[in-house]
Amino acid sequence: MPQPEFDIGELVLYKNNQLIAFNKPAGLPVATDKTGDKAMDQLGEIYCKSKLGLVHRLDRPASGVVLFARSENALAHLNEQFRERQVEKVYLAAVANRPEAMEGKLIHYLRRDGRKNKTIAYSDPQKDAKRAELSYRYLDSSDHYHLLEIRLHTGRHHQIRAQLADIGCPIKGDVKYGFRRSNPDRSIHLHAWKLTFHHPVSNQEETITAPLPPQDPVWNAFNFND
C-alpha cells in the first residue's frame, strides 16, 4: 500500500529515557516486512539515534499509538505486562453496520491462515484455533458509518477485524474482511486510540492517547471528541 508522507517528530506522543510512543500513520508498517518499505521502528531509531525494542504490533493499514522500549530493562518489563494482560488497549473503529446491542463482549476462536495473511473467526472451539475476546461499545453514527470503541482482552492476529466482520460489522475499507470497497489509500478505519501500562521504572500508571488522523472526512463526521 502507498507510503504516507509525514514529519517523524510530529508523530511523537510520549518520550522519556525508557520509552517512546508514536502515532503511526495508516500505511506504515510497525516493523520492516518483506516489502522492504520504510517502517516505524527504523524511523524511530533514526529519530532517537539509538536502538528501539519492539513491544507490540499494529496492522499496517491501521493507525494509532505504537510504543517502543529504549532500554533492555524497559523491554523486559513491558513484555511481561503484555504477556500477563496488564496493558489496556482501546481502539476506535468505523464500521459498516451498527451492532444489534449497544455494547457487548465478543468471544471467538481464531485460526490464522498464514498463506492468505488472514484470520478466520469461529463461534465454537476448533482445532488449532485460539480463544479471542474483546468488548465493544457503540459511540455514534454518521450518515453512512458507525463508531465503536473496542477494548481488547487478548491480542490475536487481525483480532478486531475478524471478530467485527463475523458479527456483520466490517471495518470501513477492510475488503479482506468483507467491506464492500477499499479506501483509496488502502487504509482501514481502525485506530489504536489509547494504551495504558505501568512505567518500567516508577511503576506509575501511564495512558497514551493518539489523536485521530486529521482531515479525514469519515472520522470527522462523528460527534466525538478524542
Structure description:
The chain is of the alpha+beta class. Helix content is 15%, strand content 34%. The protein is built from four helices and eleven strands. It has helices at residues 40-48, 72-83, 159-166, 217-220, and strands spanning 12-15, 19-24, 53-54, 63-69, 88-95, 103-113, 118-122, 130-141, 146-152, 190-198, 205-209. Strands 1, 2, 3, 4, 5, 6, 7, 8, 9, 10 and 11 form an eleven-stranded mixed beta sheet that branches. The model has no long low-confidence stretch (mean pLDDT 94).
Sheet bearing the most strands, described? 11 strands, mixed
Tell me how many strands there are.
11
Amount of beta strand: 25-35%
What structural class is derived from the secondary structure elements?
alpha+beta
Distance between the termini: 27 Å
**Helical segment count:** 4
Average pLDDT: 94
| Whole-angstrom Rg | 17 Å
Shape: globular
Q: Into which percent range does the helicity of residues fall?
A: 10-25%
Low-pLDDT segments: none
Compressed to H and E, one letter per element, the order equals: EEHEEHEEEEEHEEH
Topology:
Layout: E1 12-15, E2 19-24, H1 40-48, E3 53-54, E4 63-69, H2 72-83, E5 88-95, E6 103-113, E7 118-122, E8 130-141, E9 146-152, H3 159-166, E10 190-198, E11 205-209, H4 217-220
Parallel strand pairs: 4-10
Antiparallel strand pairs: 1-2, 2-4, 3-4, 5-9, 5-10, 6-7, 6-8, 8-9, 10-11
